[in-house]
Amino acid sequence: MSRTDEILARLSRLHPKLIDLSLDRMLPLLDKLGNPQDHLPPVIHVAGTNAKGSTIAYLRAFLEAAGKSVHVYNSPHLVRFNERIRLAGRLVETDRLNAALEEVEAINAGDAITFFEVTTVTAFKLFAETPADYLLLETGMGGTFDTTNVVKHPLGTIITPIAYDHQAFLGDSLAEIAGNKAGILKRGAKAVMGLQQDEARTVLDRAARRLGIAPLWQGEDFHGAGEDGRLVYTDEAGLLDLPPPALLGAHQFDNAALAIAAIRHFGLPVDAWALAEGLRRVSWPARMQPLRTGRLRALLPEAHELWLDGGHNAHGAAALARAIAALPEKPLVLVMGMMNTRAPEDFLAPFRDLHPARIAALTIPGEDNAHDGENIAARARAMGFAARGYETLTAALAMAADIAGARVLICGSLYLAGDVLAQNGTVPD
C-alpha cells in the first residue's frame, strides 16, 4: 500500500458512513484552515447527473488553448487519487498531496468527517495555495449539500442533463433531484443549463428565478449539432462552424455545445481559434475510449476492437448505445460490471436493439458494493441476452477473442473502468 493509500485509509475511518450529505462538518474545518474556499481563482461550478466530467474536459481544453492556467476538481478517480486534483494544468504531485492530506488530518484532530468532505477540504487548500486563472469545480453528488457547495460567489454555474441516479440520497423524482442540483445556483452568478426533461426544467427555472438569474437554456437559447462532420454551434451572437469533438459519440456534440455556451455566456477570454483547438485536443479517459495498445489489448486478435466507457446509469447507457450504433457494424461483446446501487436491467435496456453476441458479467474487483457477476448475468438472461458470469477480466476477454472480428465494449462502472486502465497500463495523466 502506498503512503497516499495509507493516509486515505485513515481518513475513510473518521466517519461511519461514506456519504452523509451535510456541510456542518466541513465548515469548521475550513475555518481552521483560513477558509481557502474564499481565496480561489474564479470558479465555474458544475452539477448534473451526466456529462459533468465531459463538460469540464471541454472547458479545460478551451481555456488552456487560450493560454489560461486551470485548476480542476473531479471525482471519482480512475486509477490514482491524484486524478481528482489538477493544479494549474497538472495532476497534483504525490508528495505535495500527501503533505496536504496529513496537514488537514492533523488540524481535523480526529473529528468525525466523511472521506469526501476531508479530501475536498484538502483540494480547496491546494487550489488556494496555487496560482491559476480559473477553477473548474465538479460536484460529487447533488448540489445543495455537496462538499463543493461552499463557494459563495462562483463566476458561473452549469447544470448538465438531470436523470435518475443516487435516488437514496437525492430523491425519488426528477423534481426532487433537480431541486438538489439547483442548490449550486448563486445570486449574481450567471447560469447555463443543459438539455433537461420538463419536470427537471420546471424546478431549475423556478430556483433560478428566485435568485434573479436568467439562465441560458440548451435547445432554446443555444444549439450545437453535427453537420457534415463538423460541429455547428448557434446562439444569439451568431454561428460558429467548428471541427468535431475529439471525444466520440453524438452526445459529445451536445456536451461540447454546453461548454461553448458557458464560455460565451460567462465572458471568458476564448476566441474561435481556441474553441477549435480545444475541440481537437480534448481528452477524457473512459468515455468511449478506444484502447489500441496495452496489456489487455494484446489479449485480443488484431481484427478486434476494444473500447472502454465508464457510463453507469440508464441515461449514460442510452448515449453509449447510440454511439456504438453509429459505428460500422461488427459483432458486439459487452463486458460489464456494476455497483449494486444501480439496476443492470436499466443499463442493458438500450442495448437490446444492438443484439450483442455475448454479455460477459464481472464482479468489480475490490468493491464490496458491486453486483455479483453471476447476478448480472442471470438478470441479463432474463431479458433475453446471451450472458454468463466470468471470474476475471482476462477470462472474459479470452471468450471475446473467439468471436471473429468482435467489437468489445467494457462498460457499466467507473470503478471497473479504473481497474481496466490499471491492468492495461493506461494511467491517466
TrEMBL record:
One of its GO terms (molecular function) is metal ion binding. Its cofactor is Mg(2+). Residues 307-413 form the Mur ligase C-terminal domain. It is an enzyme of class 6 (ligase). Keywords: ATP-binding, Folate biosynthesis, Ligase, Magnesium, Metal-binding, Nucleotide-binding. It catalyses: (6R)-5,10-methylenetetrahydrofolyl-(gamma-L-Glu)(n) + L-glutamate + ATP = (6R)-5,10-methylenetetrahydrofolyl-(gamma-L-Glu)(n+1) + ADP + phosphate + H(+); 10-formyltetrahydrofolyl-(gamma-L-Glu)(n) + L-glutamate + ATP = 10-formyltetrahydrofolyl-(gamma-L-Glu)(n+1) + ADP + phosphate + H(+); 7,8-dihydropteroate + L-glutamate + ATP = 7,8-dihydrofolate + ADP + phosphate + H(+); (6S)-5,6,7,8-tetrahydrofolyl-(gamma-L-Glu)(n) + L-glutamate + ATP = (6S)-5,6,7,8-tetrahydrofolyl-(gamma-L-Glu)(n+1) + ADP + phosphate + H(+). The keyword Transferase does not apply. GO terms for biological process: folic acid biosynthetic process. The keyword rRNA-binding does not apply. GO terms for cellular component: cytoplasm. Its EC number is 6.3.2.12, 6.3.2.17. Pathway: Cofactor biosynthesis; tetrahydrofolylpolyglutamate biosynthesis; Cofactor biosynthesis; tetrahydrofolate biosynthesis; 7,8-dihydrofolate from 2-amino-4-hydroxy-6-hydroxymethyl-7,8-dihydropteridine diphosphate and 4-aminobenzoate: step 2/2. Belongs to the folylpolyglutamate synthase family. Functions in two distinct reactions of the de novo folate biosynthetic pathway. Catalyzes the addition of a glutamate residue to dihydropteroate (7,8-dihydropteroate or H2Pte) to form dihydrofolate (7,8-dihydrofolate monoglutamate or H2Pte-Glu). Also catalyzes successive additions of L-glutamate to tetrahydrofolate or 10-formyltetrahydrofolate or 5,10-methylenetetrahydrofolate, leading to folylpolyglutamate derivatives. PANTHER family: DIHYDROFOLATE SYNTHETASE-RELATED, FOLYLPOLYGLUTAMATE SYNTHASE-RELATED. This is Dihydrofolate synthase/folylpolyglutamate synthase. It comes from Devosia chinhatensis.
